[in-house]
């Protein structure tokens, strides 16, 4: 009798999941509105910094999804570049200029690029997974450097996009792209939280702990890792397209290993428990990098390294562990 009382009913778990989804949606909407109002009163340099932080945070969000399964990719720069180059090429070659459409096109292009490699990468773990993804990213970098049709080592520019058929006003272009970026980031953060709390998302955590047990219980480890890699690719492509539209330029460095390393830096800094922590960590990185490069131009990488060591020492589970003990983020 006591066991029956303590055991949750068949309808209790779906009800709790629905409550968590509604809570995530409300928190996401509140965060978007707060950032939208704050951005209107912020200087342009700050809105641009947050825009880039949100775009880069999308890439790191995909890495966090893979980290929950026990693997860390060092080649997300390839998918970041795929989204950026696709948006720029569609803008310049096809004349399609809608910012929202270019963003989605970047995400789809990254998925198309990642899909053939996902089944292969799903077989590997640890350093082998990391090195394979790094190798793919560096192959992409080499090709982008050599292909003149893609601008070679200099890359090429992207003009000012439109939004829903309307030309963006000169005085508010940066703010509108800021709203678009944080809007997409908020939507993906809410969807990621829902996915992480879903059955398939929880299977990913089980894969991290014990792959054999997942297989014995009827789950497919390779399928779970394949899906996670494709979802991470979509996030990376979205981030690349949004970053390129804000910068107005694309170059092969998007796929270089140091770019991928920065995304991993953010994921480690955030930890794999919290979605909100990913974007907070990305903003922290942008702030530290901007001010360090301004005041310590020759040693800003050292400042970043010391900051990461500090976080690993005192917050080994990432920034998200500060509030995930009390609830979900």
Order of strands across the main sheet: 1-4
Number of strands: 4
> How big a fraction of the residues is strand?
under 5%
The helix/strand order is: HHHHHHHEEEHHHHEHHHH
- Largest sheet descriptor: 2 strands, antiparallel
What is Rg? Answer: 20 Å
DSSP helix count? Answer: 15
Shape: globular
Please state the average pLDDT score: 85
Report the helical percentage. over 70%
Measured distance between first and last alpha carbons: 35 Å
Number of domains: 1
Low-confidence stretches: 1-10
* Class based on secondary structure composition and strand pairing: mainly alpha
Helix-strand blueprint:
Elements: H1 2-6, H2 12-41, H3 44-67, H4 76-94, H5 99-114, H6 118-121, H7 126-146, E1 156-157, E2 162-163, E3 166-167, H8 173-197, H9 199-209, H10 211-216, H11 221-247, E4 249-250, H12 257-270, H13 276-295, H14 300-314, H15 321-324
Antiparallel strand pairs: 1-4, 2-3
Helix pairs in contact: 2-8, 3-8, 3-11, 3-12, 3-13, 4-5, 4-7, 4-11, 5-11, 8-11, 9-11, 12-13, 13-14
